[in-house]
Amino acid sequence: MLSPITRRLRSVVARCVVKAANDGSKLQGxxxxxxAGEEHQAAERFQQYGFSSVPQAGAEGIALAVGGxxxxxxxxxxxxxxxxxxxxxxGEVTVYDDLGHQVRLTREGIVIDGAGHxxxxxxxxxxxxxxDIEATGNVRDLxxxxxxxxxxxxTAYNGHTHGENDGGGPTDGxxxxx
Length: 178
Known about the structure:
Elements: H1 3-10, E1 13-22, E2 29-33, E3 39-45, E4 60-65, E5 73-79, E6 93-96, E7 102-105, E8 110-113, H2 150-158
C-alpha cells in the first residue's frame, strides 16, 4: 500500500544534466537528462528575479517533479563546475560566464574583469564617477579626429611654444608641465 507513495516521493527531487537550453520563451526551457537515461525535452527553469543566464550543455541542476509527477518537471538551480569561480571570501558575490568575464563584489571593492575583451557600457548618456579615476593604461577620448590619448595631449602641451605677439621668436614652453 505504501509502495506507490514511496515511489512517488523518491521521484520528486532529482539531479539533472543540461543537454540544451531554449531561451526563446517567457520561462526558459531545458532539455535535461536524469537518472537511468530518463530525459525531458522541456523542463521549465526558474531563475532568481533580476538574474538571467543560459547554461551550457553539461551544466548540472536540481529538478523537481511538481506533485511527484515526472511529466511536470521544473529545474530550480543550475551550476557548472567547469566555470564556477572559486575561492571567494564569505559574503562576496561574482557574476561570471564560460569565457572568464567577471563582475566581482569583493571586500576590497567592485572588480570588472573583461577576460581580455573590452568592457562596454551602453545606453548611458553619462558615466558619473564620484571619486578619483586611476588608470594603468591610456585614457582616450574622441575630442579630435585622431582619438588622442591624455598622454599624447600632455606631451603636446608640455612641448608647445608660440610666436611672440611683437614678431619676436617663439615663447618658452609652459611654466609647469601638465
